[in-house]
Amino acid sequence: MKQFLILFALILTFNSKADVIVHGRCYKAGIPITFYRYDEFLTNTEIQIGQTIVNPNGSFNVGIRTNQIEKILLRYDKKYCWMYVQPDATYYIDLLNDDSIKTNFSDDNESELVFLRLDSTDINYKVLAFEAWMDDFLADIYLLKDVKPGEFARGISIMKKEIARDYASDTNSYFGAYLKYSVGLTVDNFQYIGSMTQAEKYEFYFLDSPLLVQNDKYMEFFQLFFEKYYYQLSKEIRAEAYSAVIRSDLDGFLVALNKDPMLKDTPLVDLVALLIFKEEMNSKELPKSNLKVMLTHLEADMPEPTMKRMAQNLLKKYAELQAGMKSPDFLLDENIHLSDYTGKYIYLHFFNPENQKCINEISALRKLYEKYGKYIEIISIIPYDGQTLGEMEIRNLEAIKWSRFGISKEHEIWSLLKVKNYPYYILIDEQLIIKSMPALTPSPNGLYETIEKTFYDIKRKKENN
Description:
Layout lengths: L1 H12 L6 E7 L5 E7 L7 E8 L5 E6 L5 E7 L2 E7 L3 E7 L13 E2 L2 E4 L6 H19 L2 H4 L1 H18 L6 H13 L12 H8 L10 H10 L9 H12 L3 H9 L9 H12 L8 H14 L3 H15 L25 E6 L5 H17 L3 E8 L7 H8 L4 E5 L4 H5 L7 E5 L5 E3 L15 H13 L1
Parallel strand pairs: 1-7, 6-8, 10-11, 11-12
Antiparallel strand pairs: 1-4, 2-3, 2-5, 5-6, 7-9, 10-13, 13-14
Helix pairs in contact: 2-4, 5-7, 8-9, 10-12, 11-12
């Protein structure tokens, strides 16, 4: 029955009415490949649009319905890659066998795909060619930025003129926006003598420009430009906006934003409001319950379909468990609840005894336990559905000297705490308030940060009290 359902799904997915056909090859037969589109680019919510299984010969085919250029994701074998599609196009792709970048403890490793027989009029060809050209151009002049800023500025000017000249005849509006905002994200994001001021960037990129909310580069540039904009408002406007939030007054909040010079009488106001609602979801200054009420009203009044979906997806995120919220009182064993550990900070450690990185971090965890166990309760959670463990897995589990629980993958703790990777850590305070999700790890990350400084601060605060 299961095989029949899979076959039926494939028949529905690959059909003659599809606007886009993707033919591909993959290094591993038998694995599912799932295709997603972005519902919108504020929350990056994904919607499944197709699925196929790699054939025994390593090939796959899928049909996708679309009436516009859009960015899609392919997820497979704990990896993902992305591409653009345009109506009435056929694509031939190779999914690379790059297992060197794949890790067993992550479900989200970015990979690359290779296009074969890509037409020069296709959006992917244009994007890849432009990005390669821009990277080469910037590589040639970037070292001049600090040593010869005047020459660097002239180089940027030449680059922009060449872009305007070479792409003047291209009438594809999606690609035109991609060009404009890709330059904004790279070239005009540099700080150099003669670079555009914030006001100049606003005038060029937003003033009298349409809201291109369905273009990923536009939304990426918009979010960078207006990042934490609530805190950039003048003291008077911010006070007025804050007062409106305290009253759950959406109209008053939008009126306040409208008084800012960059937002006055522009359709950007609603979009900036949505960004603020996204960024301040767990704000220490703005009450979440009030923001949720205002967002509900904004969603109801929003006429633009994509922005309405942004508001709807944000409302779903407001309902999800986030840092700053109280953790559910999970049942960890037959008669042991998470609340049994209240009164101490809790460091939840999600551990898979088969994963090498999990095993490597046990010694670092043991040192933290010996040093801070009086102040922080470490609890290891192991995915366990009654399977027989090997001798090595048992030995790895026995290395854990603190509380540990084997919990079925059907338990709500995995979905509510969004545990997808191993090892995974969450820090919860004495009252079961989630402080960090995910939390820093016992071993250094790319910035050489570990959880130990947080543990030390907790210990010092406890001792001082």
